[in-house]
Amino acid sequence: MAEDIGHGTPGSEPYQPTAFAFDAESEAEAAAQIAKYPPGRQASAVLPLLYIVQRQMRRQTGSAWVPRAAMDAVARRLGMAPIRVYEVATFYTMFNLAPIGTWHLQICTTTPCWLRGSDEVVRACRAATGITGWGETSADGKFTMSEVECLGACVNAPMMQVNDDFYEDLDAERTTKLIEALRRNAPPPPGSRAGRQTSAPEGGPTTLTTLHFAPEA
């Protein structure tokens, strides 16, 4: 029986499934991750297995999150006490513990992004989605909006992460166009929305200009 983490038994919230099973794709990924660790150390695979669960939920439901029943399945697979998996899943903010929208707008508002206009990005997201507060999901279920700490793309600030991809050099207009594309289920290629080459200066590189690089994937 699963240990309690203060929210009742697995499946007690209306959105919680009562059971979870790894599908064939997840089984193969889980086996590959567990094989990286020596016998008796398989608990070290808890982080990648939680990611595998979250990706499977996205494939199956359109919402990337980790149900309680899935945490219990991870615990059984790794020979861990369920509470140990709960501790990991609730510590790291990249794991969603309740259903979210199809597109997770994770907006950085820390100092470099704020100085470069993250408030403008926040306002544009709220205007385009109808969301009024952090952690909320839009009425159509397409967007969830979260405030996050630095994501390490300060050189191209302001930026936000959408699901697993970074979109950088944002302003109100670029943010609105991005959300319009996401609403059509047509996400643009990740990276700078200003046409910047990786993290080169605005206007293009100013050094090593004779070098030629293959196009980014």
Structure, described:
This protein is an alpha/beta fold and 217 residues long. It has two domains: 99 residues, Arc Repressor Mutant, subunit A (Orthogonal Bundle); 83 residues, 3-Layer(aba) Sandwich (Glutaredoxin). It is 35% helix and 10% strand. The protein has a five-stranded mixed sheet, covered by helices on one side. The protein is globular, with a radius of gyration of 20 Å. The relative contact order is 0.10.
- Indicate the mean pLDDT: 91
Topology as a string of helices (H) and strands (E): HHHHEHHEEEHE
Structural class: alpha/beta
Which outline best applies? globular
The total domain count is 2
CATH topology of the largest domain, by name, is Arc Repressor Mutant, subunit A
Q: Report the sheet with the most strands, covering strand number, pairing sense and barrel closure.
A: 5 strands, mixed
CA gyration radius, whole angstroms: 20 Å
Low-confidence region ranges: 1-10
Q: Count of helices?
A: 7
Which descriptors would you attach to this protein?
217 residues; alpha/beta; Arc Repressor Mutant, subunit A; five-stranded mixed β-sheet; globular; disordered N terminus
